[in-house]
Amino acid sequence: MQRRLRRPLRKQKAVLIMPYMFLDCNRRMPEKGRHCVVKGKDSVIPACSTDTHPGDFTERGCPLLGCRVVICGQIKNVIHLVHSPVGCAYYSWDYRVDSEGYCLTTDMQEKDIVFGGETKLFDAVIMAVKEFDADAVFVYETCSTGIIGDDIQAVAKMASEVTGKPVIAFTCAGFRGISQNAGHKIANTKLFELVGTGELDECSDYTVNVIGDFNAKDTKSIERMLNRLGIHVVCSFTADATLDRIRAMHRAKLNLVHCSRSSIFMAEMMQEKFGTPYIEVNFFGIENCCESLRRTCEALGICGDEVEEVIEKYLSEITPEIEYYRERLEGKKVFICHGAQRAIYWIRPFKELGMKIAGIATFFGRKDDYEKIMESVDDGTVVIDNPDAEELEEVLLEVRPDIFISDDKVKPFVHKLGIPFVNGRGQGKTYAGFEGFVNFAGDVNAAINSKVWKLVRSA
Ligand code: SF4
């Protein structure tokens, strides 16, 4: 019997021809060569915003994921009905830490694809409304049901008339964009139709919406900071959002956009229709928090002394703990792998902890995102767009970071390479705001300085 040999981790080293890093695993896909760059004197941005190459095991999400999981998944008391074969509903309840509600699928079979699935979808909506006391049913188009031409908008309208509940259909099939980003826009545009259809009981002059935050604990932390300044949050879009809150978003005096890549569309549409101004903010890390609070107060006409007083109080509370962690983390190298916006947001907080940015990967970053990234990192930082697992492995073995920050889906892969990991979305706790930054520093310290790594590496 032939003995199977273990595949070596790498055959050859990556080739560095500044500013590009040519990875050994891409020898047979030269078209991918320019998507990994190293910051240097003549730095360029990596090739990005391109279709996924055939044969590339991309980790990108499709528009369904951007629409269903990223934007809609956090809205409370809603049934998510994915009109698809069961596979499309793979990212269902527990991918995001704060996913809300049930995710169902119409479980399309071969005969449904041949004869059409509209009746099946209609029956599924009726059944979902009977089974669950939800505020609404969200219906999602997928590749198979989009290609066969099922008219989900017409079915949603009919089902809504029969049940008396809002049934909202999202035309977000995977083929409608090159990445999840297209799904963000589809969800924003559809949910915008709700804005202005509800009212608040009372409304002050100091009200905001937090747009583009998808972790309810982050939202609460941001809200607590704003409350200390007398500012109230009408709706957090979409973490902690309800349909009623979304309907009343037009009552806010200002929109704070926390993740522009996913949700700037909502802010822009509100500015155009309701005249609501918006500013981009970042509540991760000390300097970002201070800046964002100052800019929010300025936009709302709140006295600068008040905000300085609140910032001073926060800083006196957290500085001793942050100093403690900084001593333990000084000089450690981090590799950031997130959506482009979050990747940009983490650069400054890591630097505040005395750490170095060794590498950054994003799956659907655009030219302007990479320009910001290249401006913010030091020479020698590796930046890669849309890496698959093999490329990521090769880059990580080249860079050898002390910690990797990303979503949980890559955690086992990173741990197998012997690299400490932290989930950048926080696990059951917030990383946003001043108190969140203490949580974050504590988790990074616990992951890097855990004794287990000495045992793993010696083994
Ligand atoms: S790309 Fe198409 S088939 Fe694949 S999960 Fe997305 S909607 Fe489903």
Structure description:
There is one protein chain. The chain is an alpha/beta fold and 459 residues long. It is 43% helix and 16% strand. It folds into 3 domains: 1-60 and 330-425, Nitrogenase molybdenum iron protein domain (Rossmann fold, 3-Layer(aba) Sandwich); 63-177, 3-Layer(aba) Sandwich (Rossmann fold); 207-307, Nitrogenase molybdenum iron protein domain (Rossmann fold). A 6-stranded mixed beta sheet has the order 3-14-13-12-15-16, with helices on both faces. The protein has a 4-stranded parallel beta sheet with strand order 5-4-6-7, sandwiched between helices. Helix 1 (63-71) crosses helix 6 (180-192) and helix 12 (340-352) packs parallel to helix 13 (367-376). The structure holds iron/sulfur cluster (SF4). Residues 62, 64, 84, 88, 142-143, 173-174 line the site of iron/sulfur cluster.
